Amino acid sequence: MKLCMIGTGYVGLVSGVCFSDLGNDVICVDKDLHKINDLKKGVIPIYEPGLEELVLKNVKNKRLSFSNNLESSVKKSDIIFICVGTPTKKSGNSADLTQIFSVAKELSKSINKFKIIITKSTVPVTTGDEIEKILKKKNTMNKFSVVSNPEFLREGEAIRDFTYPDRVVIGSNDLKSNKILKNLYSPLIGKGAKYVHTSRRAAELIKYASNAFLATKITFINEIANLCEKTSINVDDIAIGMGLDQRIGSRFLRAGPAYGGSCFPKDTKAIISTADKFQTNLSVIKSVIKSNENRSKLLLKRVYKILNNKIKNKNISFLGVTFKANTDDMRDSSSLTMIPELSKKGALIKYFDPTGYKKDFKKFKNVQYMKSVDSCLAKADLIIIHTEWNDFKSLNFKKLLKNKKTTIYDMRNLYSPNKMIKQNIKYLSVGRSL
Ligand code: UGA
Questions:
Q1: Are 201 and 126 in contact (CB under 8 A)?
Q2: How far apart (Å, rounded) are the C-alpha atoms in residues 168 and 44?
Q3: Cβ(122) – ligand 1 distance below 6 Å
Q4: CA nearest ligand 1 atom 28, residue
Q5: Are 1 and 16 in contact (CB under 8 A)?
Q6: Which one of 267, 272, 386, 426 has the lowest number of neighbouring Cβ atoms within 10 Å?
Q7: Which ligand 1 atom sits nearest the alpha carbon of residue 257?
Q8: Cα–Cα nearest to 149, from 128, 170, 130, 166
């Protein structure tokens, strides 16, 4: 099939590349000419394991191309995926749909034959209705169909998540587009993905409800971890014990720092804003947002306690600063709350991240990027394991720590407290000990 992906961010680029790998002809469009030129040269704008190889392979096969000409790319394609950003508005909590509607306006001029227009971006309920209204101004209804097909891939696991999804959700109000899309996704359905056909509005809400639920699950275990710390219980035991109940499930029960990234913080706020619009109180999700916002403050308090409230001139080393492993994404990472706060209090901060230097910390005093784990940890009074990169999972601290008084605060529970005690290493983690 001939597909056009509009927007080459995480969702657009990864799904475009994966669709081409499944044998479709895909044009990825972006108005950022620099990005398009880079992609044409095989330079990938994001860090995502396996993506570069897949781009090169499918460009070579001539199934994947890049363009900044929306009109001609849309005219050549049958199925158009809108994959532009829907960030939180500068004022308030609602999703900023400027990019979505501007693409819809451009699309309305380029519909030369029947096209399925799909929102893959995360969009609030009724956005599909709005897009339909825009397209109708210049086109008759038999020329297009507007569908919601939310994407559930995770950064860092994007290719696997796209290729082996638990489910494919298609929200369409007509049977013709449903049939075409079921066919498009048939290679994934054949490998076990469940195909769910719903109304367009339901598909839009499934995406928000899923992200809000996962955020709730994480926040829940983070709060249970707080109780575990007070009662000398290991939160990992609780997660295993709970997770084995199939109604609960074991995934997304890892206690740690505040959840971050480009989706959970934005989407939990946006669903509240949608609910407000329809005079509905989503009190559980409101509490989740509040609890998560407090989480970084809570972990910081613990850092102050470890350092006896003497933060000035203390050497604090962060291992990992991205919001999770296998991504270079800093959006809403809890390190963006913790590092500035510690820098303000006079700490001397070093950080190492496998994805390199981060400009986010440029304006803060005494925050230095180190090129290796060794140099980062050399003089540390306190080591904070912030991100769960494999690179940090089997470090020989006995060898690495030059200062015997160094404390390790493992915010991802990567190490066994007992093994650390045996090695005489001062070690604290999350939901496991005080
Ligand atoms: C999330 C969802 O998991 C995807 O299904 C969804 O498609 C995506 O948002 C999106 O809407 O585009 P992502 O933001 O890439 O994916 O990352 P996650 O792996 O979900 O992690 C989000 C945050 O939760 C991270 O800060 C992570 O460290 C944290 N987390 C996750 C935990 O603290 N504990 C867990 O058990 C799992």
A1: yes
A2: 26
A3: yes
A4: 324
A5: no
A6: 426
A7: 33
A8: 170
- List, for residues 69-110, the tens digit of each pLDDT value: 999 999 999 999 999 999 999 999 999 999 999 999 999 999
Q: Relative to the CA of 332, which ligand 1 atom is closest?
A: 26
Mutate to test the pocket of ligand 1, among 15, 251, 259, 322 (most ligand atoms within 8 A of CB): 259
CB 295 less than 6 A from any atom of ligand 1: no
Q: Is the CB of 259 under 6 A from ligand 1?
A: yes
Is 83 among the catalytic positions?
no
326-347 per-position pLDDT tens digit: 999 999 999 999 999 999 999 9
CA distance 333 to 166: 27
The phi, psi pair for 145, rounded to 5°, reads -140, 135
- In whole angstroms, how large is the CA radius of gyration of the chain? 24
Token pair for residue 42? 């095989």
Decide: helix, strand or coil at residue 61.
coil
Instruction: Write 58-65 long-range contacts (CB < 8 A, 24+).
Output: 58/17, 58/20, 58/21, 58/26, 61/20, 63/20, 63/21, 63/23, 63/24, 63/25, 63/26, 64/16, 64/17, 64/20, 64/26, 64/28, 65/26, 65/27, 65/28
Residue 324 C-alpha to ligand 1 middle, in angstroms?
A: 8
Range 9-20 average pLDDT: 97
Please report the domains of the chain, with CATH numbers, ordered by start residue. Answer: 2-198 (3.40.50.720), 202-434 (3.40.50.720)
What CA–CA distance (Å, rounded) separates 168 from 185? 8
Residue 433 has pLDDT above 90, yes or no: no
For residue 260, which amino acid is it? G
CB-count burial class (<10 Å; 0-12, 13-18, 19+) for 198: middle
Whether 254 is in the pocket of ligand 1, judged by its Cβ within 6 Å, is yes
| Burial (CB count within 10 angstroms: exposed 0-12, middle 13-18, buried 19+), residue 78 | middle
CA of 261, closest atom in ligand 1 = 14
d(CA 182, CA 194): 11
Q: What is the mean pLDDT of residues 389-403?
A: 93
SS3 of residue 427 by DSSP: strand
For atom 29 of ligand 1, which residue has the closest CA? 259
Nearest protein Cα to ligand 1, atom 13 = 154
Q: With a 6 A CB cut-off, is 211 part of the ligand 1 pocket?
A: yes
Atom of ligand 1 nearest to the CA of 215: 24
